[in-house]
Design a protein that fits this description.
It holds the Pfam family AAA_16. Keywords: ATP-binding, Nucleotide-binding. One of its GO terms (molecular function) is DNA binding. The protein has 861 residues and is mainly alpha-helical. 68% of the residues lie in helices and 3% in strands. The protein is built from 44 helices and five strands. It has a three-stranded parallel sheet with strand order 1-2-3. The chain has a two-stranded antiparallel ribbon with strand order 4-5. The longest helix has 18 residues. The protein starts with a helix and ends in a 6-residue tail after the last helix.
């Protein structure tokens, strides 16, 4: 309870962050916690105890010739904390408690034993060594919840470096920082700062720059090592086998190595590996890599270590690296393939065109792995020496990576000039232009470019599958049946081959087509298989899109918990890869609407719409506005919801996306318009939606349209007829493919019945909606329906005028003291009225009330 109240800003937080350098100073933690609250001791603590407390915290000198009385100090702290807790809940936050000064720790342990179960809670963080148990449980109030925290994942550390240092790292560089830091955010930031200062990204054969501050934290274990042990440790640090048993035993004794559960030796902290590698001379590092290459039979590892041991051009080595890159791509490791192709280019002697071709292979692999900065750098290096095909490939890839429309236009014009007279290359240019037009909603231009690409493609299966992967989405909006035939043909063409970009989008597109027809279980199964294949192939560029589509599929299937986790995973993934945050925020908002809160969804989606507006990403912006409309509806702002949903529909219509099963927008828009009083506009939307559903044979949207029509009928004074219509429709909807549509219809039926004061019928309908939303894990709509049930049941009488004023000020985030001053009441009177409001609303505290008010449709008076 304290944690929830603290999160809402209601608790008094007393914070101390201990440090090793101050652990010898007595009562420094008590000073951090209580020094600014000693005035409260004047009324709550007896004078002689207050004097002891002030003396211990050096706010006044102790009586001459006396020492601090430990019993008096302990009782004084207990009394002061008890007095503070009578005013508001208290959260004592102790950071790095292993460094608390012993006198403070003894006093706090005494106080916690006597204050547990009151309105006081503690949050204690303690660092423990691997394998050790926390030892400061005496500082925790009961019941105690222990939460072990490990290192941060690579995506989380990447986000930390991006937000704190404006440093974007991907691929091998980010993997090395994650490994070297062991997931420790402080270590990762220190390594990142060194890269920012040096303005470099380390090459595979270069050590990370380990600053002296980091060395001082972990390198003391290396001090006692005999020099003879260093070569064996260098082999391990370079990626080779472990030292001999004798060497390993000595390193174990010094705490440099540990023996894992798998029977393998590893450094006791990964930072030690970077220090050992950095401390070796360049010649020693080259020798270690050459020795590792001789010891391995794996062609990829052998070629990589040979390259790291030889920095001069070597045709035979470059060819071996080329073959190893192909093997890595087949294994689903495009990031490794990119590194190997880059090494092959660097080792290629006297053949600039061949080196450029290998650089473009590196760029393609980096692009597939989501390493966009690496792909851009490789393309720019290759352009000067590439042949015609290479220049076209480089310019098209650079255009795909560039967010500046003017530069993209110049790159496309240059690519078209290079491709002139080469049908196969010109087909690729037209195909790229078609893809850009499709994403911008210019469907006629897209189809025209596709026709030209197809005419020039000849018998190229690779080009044809790419053409079909672009044609499919266009046909989804013009001829759904034909789109399915197109997708199936494309999937057949790619069967048995590598998982290319076109293969991914053909399989995803076929699942989307099935989803819109109601084939939810098949679509979810196919998308889950596709996700596994994409992850196994390391095609991270496409993974964000697959996660987006899978989130939609989980939502349509009513699997909201999985939609929530998948959407958040996709959002984090896009945050790492995409310079514009708009699509990541869109996916985060979608996730929150499934398993989070309406408020969090609205915050993310509002930011998404703003970020997407200048990017000419009409489709994504339309989705963000539509989803924001749903969030505002849940928050009770039906007027704003209607306007946002209408704008979303206008944008989608403008780019030809008129399939009513695309976004399930029409019913929500009509219902919001009706509740906002725009009944004629709602009727027009429903008429258009019915016509579109008939043309596209979209039976899956009929339940939603009937629900919206029933709400419109009720608003026109035909509530009983509307309720009967909707109830009859629900009686035949047991096997509807979209479970959340059924739950939403029950919620609307509850609202219709409540409006004509048929409380029992309304309670039954709302209860059914709540059971369904709870079953599917859709928490925002569950809270919405529960709030409607609470309002229906009343939890007592309506609020008085005074109570309503207090509710309005709570909604405006005023504190109890501010409310008391504004209404000329005592704080205790405000608290008494709030207690009655809590009981009336069926909530436990202010945080719950604020959440309930956010879900309520009733605006403040």
């Amino acid at each position: 309870m304290i944690g929830a109240v603290a999160a809402a800003g209601e608790a008094l937080v007393l914070h101390s962050a201990a440090s090793a350098t101050e652990a010898h100073l007595p009562y420094v933690a008590l000073f951090d916690l209580l020094a600014t609250h000693l005035d409260a001791a004047d009324d709550a603590v007896p004078a002689h105890l207050a004097a002891t407390l002030r003396a211990a915290l050096l706010h006044e000198p102790p009586a001459a010739g006396t020492a601090t009385s430990q019993p008096a100090l302990r009782i004084a702290v207990v009394e002061l904390l008890r007095a503070l807790a009578e005013r508001q809940p208290v959260l004592i936050l102790l950071d790095d408690a292993q460094w608390l000064d012993p006198p403070s720790m003894e006093v706090l342990a005494f106080a916690v034993r006597r204050l547990g179960g009151s309105r006081i809670a503690t949050l204690v963080t303690e660092r423990v060594a691997d394998g050790d148990e926390p030892s400061l449980g005496e500082l925790c109030t009961s019941p105690t919840v222990e939460i072990p925290l490990g290192g941060l994942a690579e995506t989380e550390l990447a986000a930390l470096l991006r937000t704190r240092l404006a440093l974007r790292l991907h691929g091998s560089a980010m993997a090395r920082i994650t490994a070297a830091s062991g997931g420790n955010p402080l270590f990762a930031l220190e390594l990142g700062r060194a890269l920012v200062r040096d303005d470099v990204t380390p090459r595979p054969d270069e050590p990370l720059r380990v600053t002296r501050r980091l060395r001082d934290l972990v390198s003391d274990r290396l001090a006692g090592l005999a020099p003879a042990l260093r070569p064996g440790l260098l082999m391990l640090a370079a990626g080779g086998p472990a030292p001999t048993e004798t060497e390993a035993s000595a390193a174990l004794a010094e705490g440099v190595l540990v023996l894992g559960a798998d029977g393998r030796y590893r450094f006791s902290h990964p930072m030690l590996s970077e220090i050992v590698y950095a401390d070796a001379t360049p010649h020693q590092r080259l020798a270690a890599h050459l020795r590792i290459a001789d010891l391995t039979d794996d062609p990829v590892r052998h070629a990589r270590h040979r390259a790291l041991a030889c920095s001069r051009p070597d045709a035979e080595l470059a060819a071996a690296l080329d073959r190893a890159a192909d093997a890595a791509r087949r294994r689903g490791a495009p990031g490794t393939a990119a590194e190997l192709s880059r090494l092959a280019a660097d080792r290629t002697p006297a053949d600039p065109a061949l080196a450029a071709r290998r650089l473009l292979n590196a760029a393609d692999s980096s692009h597939a792995a989501g390493l966009f900065a690496d792909a851009r750098a490789d393309c720019e290096r290759a352009l000067g020496d590439a042949d015609v095909e290479g220049r076209v490939s480089a310019r098209l890839l650079l255009a795909d990576l560039d967010a500046d429309s003017e530069r993209t236009s110049r790159l496309l014009a240059d690519a078209a000039a290079d491709a002139a007279g080469h049908p196969h290359l010109m087909a690729r240019v037209h195909l790229y232009q078609a893809d850009v037009a499709m994403r911008s909603g210019e469907l006629s231009s897209c189809l025209a470019d596709l026709e030209q690409a197809e005419a020039l493609a000849g018998d190229s299966t690779e080009l044809m599958t790419r053409i079909l992967s672009v044609r499919g989405p266009v046909e989804l909006f013009t001829d759904g049946a034909r789109a399915i035939r197109t997708y199936r043909h494309g999937v057949r063409l790619t069967e048995g081959g590598p998982l290319t970009e076109a293969a991914v989008y053909l399989r995803a597109g076929l699942a989307v087509a099935r989803l819109r027809q109601g084939g939810v279980s098949v679509a979810v199964r196919d998308l889950e298989l596709l996700r596994g294949d994409v992850e196994a192939a390391g095609r991270f560029r496409e993974l964000g899109d697959v996660l987006h589509v899978l989130t939609v599929a989980y939502e349509r299937a009513g699997r909201c918990r999985q939609a929530y986790s998948t959407g958040l995973a996709g959002a984090r993934f896009r945050e790492d890869l995409e310079p514009n945050a708009g699509r990541a925020l869109l996916l985060r908002g979608m996730a929150e609407l499934n398993g989070g809160t309406a408020a969090a969804a609205a915050s993310a989606l509002e930011a998404a719409a703003a970020a997407l507006e200048p990017q000419n990403m009409t489709e994504s912006r339309a989705y963000s506005l539509g989803l924001l409309g749903r969030a505002r509806y849940l928050q009770g702002d039906v007027g704003t919801a209607a306007a946002l949903l209408a704008r979303s529909r206008e944008l989608l219509d403008g780019i030809g996306y008129v399939d009513p099963a695309l976004f399930l927008l029409d019913a929500d828009l009509a219902e919001a318009l009706t509740r906002a009083g725009a009944t004629e506009q709602a009727a027009h939307v429903l008429q258009e939606a019915r016509a579109r559903a008939g043309r596209e044979d979209r039976t899956v949207v009929r339940l939603g349209l009937t629900r919206a029509e029933a709400v419109l009928q009720a608003a026109r004074g035909e509530a009983h007829t509307a309720a009967s219509l909707l109830r009859d429709t629900l009686g035949h909807a047991a096997d509807h493919p979209y479970p959340l549509e059924v739950a939403r219809a029950w919620a609307s039926l509850g609202a219709i019945e409540a409006a004509v004061r048929r409380r029992a019928a309304a309670r039954m309908a709302y209860g059914e909606a709540a059971r369904r939303y709870a079953r599917h894990g859709c928490t925002p709509w569950l809270r919405y329906v529960q709030a409607a049930l609470d309002d229906l049941d009343g939890h007592g009488r309506p609020p008085t005028d005074l109570e309503q004023h207090i509710i309005d000020m709570v909604r405006a985030k005023a504190t109890n003291r501010q409310i008391a001053a504004a209404l000329h009441l005592s704080v205790k009177t405000v608290e008494a009225h709030l207690t009655r409001v809590y009981r009336m609303r069926g909530v436990r505290n202010r945080a719950d009330l604020v959440s309930r008010l956010a879900q309520s449709q009733t605006p403040p008076r």
